[in-house]
Amino acid sequence: MTTPLFQPMKLGKITLQNRIVMPPMTRSRASQPGDVANDLMATYYAQRATAGLIVSEGTQISATAKGYAWTPGIYTAEQIAGWKKVTDAVHAEGGAIFAQLWHVGRVTHPENIGGQQPVSSSAIKAENVKVFLDNGTDEPGFVDVVEPRAMTTEDIKQVVADYRQAALNAVEAGFDGIELHAANGYLINQFIDSEANNRTDEYGGILKNRLRFLDEVVAAMVDAIGADRVGVRLAPLTTLNGTVDANPIETYTAAAALLNKHNIVYLHIAEVDWDDAPDTPISFKQALRDTYEGVLIYAGRYNGEKAEQAISDGLADMIGFGRPFVSNPDLPERIQNGYPLADHDPSTLFGGAEKGLTDYPTYNEQPTYSK
Question: Global pTM?
Answer without folding.
Answer: 0.96
